[in-house]
Write a structure and sequence with these properties.
The chain has 203 residues and is an alpha+beta fold. It is 15% helix and 33% strand. Strands 1, 2, 4, 5, 7, 8 and 11 form a 7-stranded mixed sheet that branches. A hairpin with a 2-residue loop joins strand 13 and strand 14.
């Protein structure tokens, strides 16, 4: 199983970090060890003083695929959840300044939290789903899948050009504006439409 993440897929988030909106999806990977076990907290790593939350819609691949056309992409997933791409922003900044890969700041152990997967049939239109993240009961991020620069189906088409998609692979589809730092004892809650999909504590 692999975790494929998409960067800068919401114009508002790209702009808040001073980045250009990409002309094609920006991809990076997280290993399986990045996943936080169910009902476990997120532990702030010793190597960073500025860990950011990034709420994202997560797609679970349900069949083997390569070079998938966007018009057929919906056949390759039937469940979605919300996730958090935890980012060591201070380390990422240093790596970007040196032109180095981001993996140390994005793919460290415990850097990916994923909530409960929900059948896409639960939604009227998966391409227009609302989601939000609250920190200590205060909403910090709001997004809609319709605001993505590249839609879910376009992402699957693009990603499968480079990587064979296998059953169980996860795609983190990008985060809207509103990212920010976490501190110890913060309580994070993610809502998919109006339903709580994921909650966890920061330690």
């Amino acid at each position: 199983m692999k975790i494929i993440c998409v960067g800068r897929n919401y114009a508002s988030h790209a702009q808040e970090l001073g980045n250009e909106v990409p002309k094609e999806p920006a991809l990076f990977l997280k290993p399986e060890t990045a996943l936080i076990a169910k009902r476990q907290p997120f532990f702030i790593p010793d190597f960073s003083n500025d860990i950011h939350y990034e709420a994202e819609v997560v797609i679970k691949i349900n069949r083997l695929g390569k070079n998938i056309q966007a018009k057929f992409a919906s056949k390759y997933y039937d469940k979605v959840a919300l996730g958090i791409d935890f980012t060591a922003r201070d380390l990422q900044k240093k790596l970007k300044e040196k032109g180095l890969p981001w993996e140390k700041s994005k793919a460290f152990d415990g850097s990916a939290a994923v909530g409960r997967f929900v059948d896409v049939k639960h939604f009227v239109d998966i391409q227009n789903v609302r989601f939000s993240l609250a920190v200590n009961k205060e909403v910090k991020q709001n997004g809609k899948t319709s605001e993505m620069v590249f839609s879910i189906n376009q992402l699957i088409e693009y990603i499968s050009t480079f990587f064979t998609l296998k059953i169980g692979d996860l795609i983190f589809t990008g985060t809207p504006a509103g990212v920010g730092s976490v501190t110890k004892n913060d309580f994070l809650e993610l809502y998919l439409e109006d339903d709580l999909n994921l909650s966890l504590t920061v330690k």
